[in-house]
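Entry 14. Ran structure prediction on the chain below.
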Amino acid sequence: MSFKRSFTLPKGIVDSEKIKATYKNGELKINIPKLEAAKPKPAKLITVE
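Output, structure tokens:
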């Protein structure tokens, strides 16, 4: 028995060159890293005097 699934990833968000998958003990793990530019930026603190 086999299973196949496909989906489209958003452009400009995912680093498709670094996608990795492992299958061990019946468990499939897929790592889909974001591009650095797509990662959320830390909140800026503005001091008000």
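The mean pLDDT is 87. Will compare against last week's run tomorrow.
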